[in-house]
């Protein structure tokens, strides 16, 4: 594959099909209400922070995308509400015309049939380059470890800092970031919150949601909390903050 990675601003023809690429995201992950602060305006307000990748042998067919967003911190402190905080603070900074002091990766999505092909590492490198081009000294990211769903009951504070014999992170996606130059900084214990009625959760997952208590849902990094009497279930996703230094 001859990979070509550009910004959406450079190749606006991808805007119409940006979200149509087949991916492996669980459906419930697409129902965080805070996401609309970025995704509904990404192609019009943030095209210079959206990366698109295609294969020169198949020009015009998206193989991967990467999204990032400038936001404001509080004296450089990375927020416990990770992903949601980036979206909320980033949009508020833009609407209130405040100067962002940080930039965060939001997602890297690879076409479903190309998972495991090494594209994600190229997208991480491209996100780093784009952050540096915009004058940032660090790219941060609330990372969603891709093997954590196999251990939903393990606290993220334990999982995030687990390493192999070679000193690299146990988790494959965290390893990609560390190999690219990142360090694991801290856990974002409430990075994303998805709540819904039991009927909504049944539609998202195909599970019965007929008992109260913690429920293991395929693809979830921690249990979903179900309350049958009140007809609601809530998922609070922990992520892992990593930081990619871009200078020095």
Q: What's the structural domain tally?
A: 1
State mean pLDDT (0 to 100 scale). Answer: 96
**Large-scale geometry:** globular
Would you list the SSEs in sequence order as H and E? EHHEEHEHEHHEHEEE
- Low-pLDDT ranges: none
Please identify which CATH superfamily we are dealing with: Gcn5-related N-acetyltransferase (GNAT)
Distance N terminus to C terminus?
Answer: 33 Å
What would your notes on this structure say?
The chain has 248 residues and is of the alpha+beta class. It has a single domain (3-192, 238-245), classed as 3-Layer(aba) Sandwich (Aminopeptidase). The protein is 23% helix and 29% strand. The protein has 7 helices and 9 strands; from the N terminus they run βααββαβαβααβαβββ. It has helices at 36-39, 42-45, 82-95, 119-133, 156-159, 172-179, 198-205, and strands spanning 3-7, 50-55, 62-71, 102-110, 138-143, 183-196, 213-215, 224-227, 232-245. The strands form 2 sheets. Strands 5, 6, 7, 8 and 9 form a 5-stranded antiparallel beta sheet that branches. The longest helix is centred in the middle third of the chain and has 15 residues, at 119-133. The mean pLDDT is 96.
């Amino acid at each position: 594959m001859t990979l070509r990675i550009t910004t959406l601003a450079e190749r606006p023809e991808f805007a119409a099909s940006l979200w149509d690429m087949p991916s492996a995201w669980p459906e419930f992950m697409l129902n965080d209400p805070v996401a609309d602060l970025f995704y509904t305006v990404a192609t019009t307000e943030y095209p210079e922070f959206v990366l698109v990748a295609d294969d020169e042998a198949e020009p015009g067919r998206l193989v991967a995308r990467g999204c990032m967003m400038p936001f404001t911190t509080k004296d450089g402190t990375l927020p416990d509400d990770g992903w949601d905080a980036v979206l909320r603070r980033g949009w508020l900074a833009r609407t209130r015309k405040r100067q962002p002091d940080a930039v965060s990766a939001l997602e890297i999505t690879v076409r479903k049939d190309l998972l495991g092909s090494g594209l994600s590492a190229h997208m991480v490198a491209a996100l780093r380059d784009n952050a540096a081009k915009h004058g940032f000294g660090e790219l941060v990211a609330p990372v969603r470890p891709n093997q954590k769903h196999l251990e939903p009951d393990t606290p993220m504070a334990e999982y995030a800092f687990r390493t192999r014999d070679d000193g690299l992170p146990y988790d494959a996606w965290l390893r990609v970031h560390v190999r690219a130059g990142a360090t694991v900084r801290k856990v974002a214990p409430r990075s994303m919150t998805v709540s819904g009625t039991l009927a909504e959760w049944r539609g998202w997952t195909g599970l019965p949601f007929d008992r109260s208590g913690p429920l293991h849902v395929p693809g979830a990094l921690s249990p979903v909390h179900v309350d049958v009497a009140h007809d609601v279930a809530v998922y609070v996703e922990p992520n892992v903050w990593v930081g990619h230094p871009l200078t020095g």
